[in-house]
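Notebook B, p. 112. Complex prediction, attempt 2.
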Amino acid sequence: MTSMMRRPRAFLSALALAAMPWLASAGIIEIEKAQGTTVVALLQGEGQMHVDAMEAMLLRNYPTMYKPGTRQFFKYIGGRMHGATLAHIDYSYEMNGSTHVRSYYARSGRSMGMIADLAYAKWRRGEASATESGDTDASSADSGVIDDVTRDAGEAIFYSPDTPAKVRVAALPDDASTIESVNIGDGKSHATDAEIKIARRIDADIQTGVVPGQGKLTGYVSKTVCESCRNALNELAMRHDINGTVYQLIEPGPARQGTATGGEGLAEANTPLRLSQKASVDLKSLRSQYATKTLGRGIPGEPAPGFSDVRAIERAEASATLPELAEACE
Amino acid sequence: MRMHCFVALLAIVPGTLSANQLTGTDVLAQWQRHRIERLGGGQASLSRRDILGQLLVQPSSAYSASIDQPVFTNEVDWPATLASTRLDSDVALDALRRDLGVTRARPRRDITPAPGFRDDFVAASATKAGVDADIFWHVLDVTGYRHSTKAAIYAVGLQILRAQVAATPPEQWTSSGIDPTVVTRVMRAQHSDQLTAYDLDYLSTLVQYRLIHRRDGEAVGDGQRSLPAAYRVARIAAAYRDTQGYVGGPPCTRDAAPNVAVAGTGQPDDERPLCFVAATDRAVHAWYVAEYRRQATAVSPPHRDTGLHRLAVAAGLVLALIDLAGAVEFVEASLADDLATAEAIGPTEADAASEPANLLSCPL
């Protein structure tokens, strides 16, 4: 029985190897639970970059919305920003006898301009709900995706410039990579998932010689990695003989959210699952606070301090003068 | 029976601790929670001037001593704070002073200097910052005196990472985002060009997180109560300044008092270095922010793709947060309104109110 089962599988494997020669050198990407303050620090910092970029985009492209009566517009956008999945993946490889690391970071969802357009339309219709927030991973349709890719790429100006070591990943055009999201039966497109954006970008970087294959991948994702993203990461691993691990934060289920922050016995509190849930709650809280503070009120104020000021600091360092910083509070 | 003994021991131990041995208790957050519960979010805020006026003999002086019994200890929130933290008033007050940056670093009076720093005053500041001697000297060697304010950020970042590596089982390093190879690489670097953007960015992120997500009462590697990150960075920069020596004479007398003729006053128009060990952490922090600006304007901008450029960019991200850390943040205005509206304030909300991430804008 078992041998009969194996035969078709072996045949299919041989067929797959013939059709997809990269499978012969397949790597493996494991998915594990993430935990701890450093993971929260990493993802929070990058989450702030996205929020700051959104604020910069709104100030430039939607200045007329900074007026009374537009709170729901900003609240909707804030919800989209702190509800999005964040992914950070380090790709390390050997070259000239030393190890190099190229970090990729991405936010799930559509371009900032598209999110703002949707928020504007909802605000105009009075449909923006105070409770509406959440993940933008799963858009209900693919319409407008091509335009969105162009917009997403153009929004690089609102981020600190990419460096060889750190890259903000936007959605790529279809022809940049053959890694695609797959239909996992939930009726939604996962093409704008953060992990898929990064998998496609690493694939494109390897194809264009920016980085070599056969590297090691270590990633951190703010939410559970979806099936479509697992497939994309596996395809990347198989295609370029990449091994590694992606660590995911596990969101507590609705019934368990209250216990994730405390109240459990010590032994249970120290399980990887609980530690991951705690980190997830901490991250979510910090991201929500920052997005609400920065975007939620619709008040153009002082430039956000800290993570946002890469360009300002670079300009300042280049001109040997420091930027005007917010005055300390009295 | 055994459990009873354990509980009794727990009840006794905090009272025997000194403030710098007290870890895991955020006195400020507890005090704030009780104020909010009593007064409501809108009325619970204290301005910086109010708090410092109650804690310091001369709030306007960089070298002020602390008031033994601040007025707020006579208010009902303070006994409630002591009850919920199970601390003696003196220990709780010392912890509060330390977290709010009003303590000093005089050798053997405020701080027991750790070995390896070659100089008593340098050792006192670096010890207060909780940075090991090997990290302290190596980072300075790699970056040089002209960039010592930036170097201080990385020294603290390296120490944070070293502590995390020590406190976390090796099998959990990667899942916790802890990369011990950063310590290895940075400590092996002989020149700033050997510092990678990845490593500097990583260390910068660790420090930024500590600045935003301040956990008062957190233990550092040796189990001591950690100083807030902004003060740690400032103290290291001050120690670096002390290692340089002073052309016009030292700003401190031998017994760690300010040499009035030489020492800076900490006033905005006075750029002279302070007698750092005799100054409060807040005053050292204010000096640090000004000194960072002075260093940035005193040296030529580094070329791109050099270690110094990478050093500057990643460190610059931290500066804005450090600049704001000088405020005694209390309850941020809109959050306080929300809490007051909600009427019932649970521990979670009160914790959120005390979270400095909320407090990047000015309090009431």
